[in-house]
């Protein structure tokens, strides 16, 4: 009898412990569920070269701890690759242009042809050598050659990366044996996003008290990366869509027959029509305004099929503003044309951005943050 009672008590104790463990698990799940409710899921989308990865890096710098020394050093090889690839594109482009009617201005000096062949060969490799003083000097000689400068002026016809001028003007510093990239170097560094990367952060300032947390997902923008987006579409608070407005006269890296702006238009249209975004807020970043305001004064908008009816009305800053407002209106029209009647109440905001300008990105994100918080309060019936 005593043994039986002891055995029953043993089972009772085990059951109590098991119940306590189950209750603890349920408590944790409830806590995590509550925590998840405070997390705003943001999806950063855009075509390749839209500058969205720079936006991602800026937010990491602004709202997280930034980049530690190990992370900064990891960009050395990326920056080296950017330099070798850029100089190869320019050298190969000069040879191509030298076959044209007005060929003389694209012909390099004899000495620089030898250097160009050497650097083009390096640029064709998968394993780039570390940039040193000797290589930096040779790249510098080639960069300053009038033929290369003429080629660079026609960079829109090639696939010359936006970071080219910045890195070419900083070759001596970048080739130092003890070089550690600066935050600005990292922002300029061009590396394609493959797969999905994410960061979680709380904005600084007054919103910090409210416990708002954002989880930002950045996904590859090239065509072959887009199939990886699909599983991220559910439960998104807002889509931040980046469109590089300076690319109206350029073609895709992966399809040189396709205009980049037309690709962006079609991609934006496709994203807008996804059923899972029925109530999702849309934040459109018209990006790379700094490049756009220089280009639009010399390259007419109507070289792009989407902007074929554009008519310039002025010069200088007035023309820049006129051109920008025209593009903004085209995207707004596309948004409303692609938005079903039952989705017209979702939030849609357009922002002018320059991803490389930290002040602009900080100000823009503050506006996005305010918009999303107001939306949440409205849906909760508190506004």
TrEMBL record:
Keywords in alphabetical order: Cell membrane, GTP-binding, Hydrolase, Lipoprotein, Magnesium, Membrane, Metal-binding, Myristate, Nucleotide-binding, Palmitate, Transducer
GO molecular function, one term: GTPase activity
Location of this chain's protein in the cell: Cell membrane
Pfam assignment, any one: G-alpha
Cofactor requirements of the protein: Mg(2+)
UniProt-listed GO biological process terms: adenylate cyclase-modulating G protein-coupled receptor signaling pathway; gibberellin mediated signaling pathway
GO cellular component labels: cytoplasm; heterotrimeric G-protein complex
Residues given in the record as Mg(2+) binding sites: 53, 193
Domain of life: Eukaryota
Residues that coordinate or bind GTP: 49-54, 162, 187-193, 218-222, 287-290, 355
Family listed: Belongs to the G-alpha family.
Assembly with partners or alone: G proteins are composed of 3 units; alpha, beta and gamma. The alpha chain contains the guanine nucleotide binding site.
Entry comment, domain topic: The helical domain is required for self-activation.
Role according to the record: Guanine nucleotide-binding proteins (G proteins) are involved as modulators or transducers in various transmembrane signaling systems.
Protein name (database record): Guanine nucleotide-binding protein alpha subunit
């Amino acid at each position: 009898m005593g043994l039986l009672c002891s055995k029953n008590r043993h089972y009772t104790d085990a059951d109590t412990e098991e119940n306590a463990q189950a209750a603890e698990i349920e408590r944790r799940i409830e806590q995590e569920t509550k925590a998840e409710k405070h997390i705003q899921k943001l999806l950063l989308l855009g075509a390749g070269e839209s500058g969205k990865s720079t936006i991602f890096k800026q937010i990491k710098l602004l709202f997280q701890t930034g980049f530690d020394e190990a992370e900064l050093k990891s960009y050395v090889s990326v920056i080296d690759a950017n330099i070798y690839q850029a100089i190869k594109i320019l050298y190969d482009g000069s040879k191509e242009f030298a076959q044209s009617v007005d060929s003389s201005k694209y012909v390099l000096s004899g000495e620089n042809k030898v250097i160009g062949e050497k650097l083009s060969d390096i640029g064709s490799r998968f394993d780039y050598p570390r940039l040193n003083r000797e290589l930096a000097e040779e790249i510098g000689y080639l960069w300053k050659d009038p033929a290369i400068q003429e080629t660079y002026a026609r960079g829109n016809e090639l696939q010359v990366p936006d970071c080219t001028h910045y890195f070419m003007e900083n070759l001596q510093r970048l080739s130092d044996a003890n070089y550690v990239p600066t935050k600005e170097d990292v922002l300029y560094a061009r590396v394609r996003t493959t797969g999905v990367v994410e960061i979680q952060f709380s904005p600084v300032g007054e919103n910090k008290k409210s416990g708002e947390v954002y989880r930002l997902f950045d996904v590859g923008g090239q065509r072959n990366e887009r199939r990886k987006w699909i599983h991220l579409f559910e439960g998104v608070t807002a889509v931040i869509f980046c469109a590089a407005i300076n690319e109206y006269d350029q073609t895709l890296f992966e399809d040189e027959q396709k205009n980049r702006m037309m690709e962006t238009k079609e991609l934006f249209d496709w994203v807008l029509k996804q059923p899972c975004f029925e109530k999702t807020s849309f934040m459109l970043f018209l990006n790379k305004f700094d490049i756009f305001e220089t280009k639009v004064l010399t390259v007419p908008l109507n070289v792009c099929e989407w902007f074929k009816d554009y008519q310039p009305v002025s010069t200088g800053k007035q023309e820049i503003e006129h051109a920008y407002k025209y593009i903004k209106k085209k995207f707004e029209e596309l948004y409303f044309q692609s938005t079903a009647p039952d989705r017209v109440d979702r939030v849609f905001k357009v922002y002018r951005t320059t991803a490389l300008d930290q002040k602009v990105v900080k100000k823009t994100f503050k506006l996005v943050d305010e918009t999303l918080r107001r939306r949440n309060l409205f849906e909760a019936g508190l506004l």
